[in-house]
Amino acid sequence: MDFFFEDLPTTSQSTPNSDHGESQSTEDIDYDSSRGKSSSLSLSMTKIQEQQTSSSIDEISRRVQDLVEKVNDSRTSDQKVMDGFQDKLVEKVSEMCQQMKEHMYTVYEKNSNDMQVKLQEVSEVLESCTKLNQELLEASQALTGLREALAISQSSEPL
């Protein structure tokens, strides 16, 4: 809101009839011109203050924009770091899973070999048991035959 008083007509009238009027008229003109100068100075000061305020606001706005850009850049950088971390983590986890699988297959192979050896031993033991069982049956039958022969021979002998 700028007010310009320089363009307005003055309300004081000069009277050329008396010396006092001329001096008053000159004083009024001096007063009006000094008032115009002070108004002009006041307006200039107001404009300067408005420009300073405007430039201060512009400076603050620029700084805020710079800060927002720095925050956004920082967020972008953080996202890149997190993406890189995630990629490396996925790679490491995949690598560890592969190592675990390989180890698991190695353990399976060893256990398979151990079980094969044990099954062979069990098979050999069962075969021995079958042979021993057969021998026991033959021995039992032989003893039964001897017992019957003894029983017959004892019953045929005179007493």
What does this protein look like?
The chain is mostly helical and 159 residues long. 87% of the residues lie in helices and 0% in strands. It contains 1 helix and no strands. The longest helix has 138 residues, at 19-156.
Q: Which range does the strand content fall in?
A: under 5%
> How many helices in DSSP terms?
1
Kindly, what is the distance between the CA atoms of the first and last residues, rounded to a whole number of angstroms? 161 Å
Task: Name the shape in a single word.
Answer: rod-shaped
Ranges where pLDDT stays below 50 over 5 or more residues in a row are 1-32
Largest sheet: none
What is the string of SSEs from the N terminus onward? H
Radius of gyration of CA atoms, rounded to a whole number:
62 Å
**Helix content class:** over 70%
Strand runs, count = 0
What's the arrangement of secondary structure elements?
Elements: H1 19-156
In short:
Helices cover 87% and strands 0% of the residues. It has one helix and no strands.
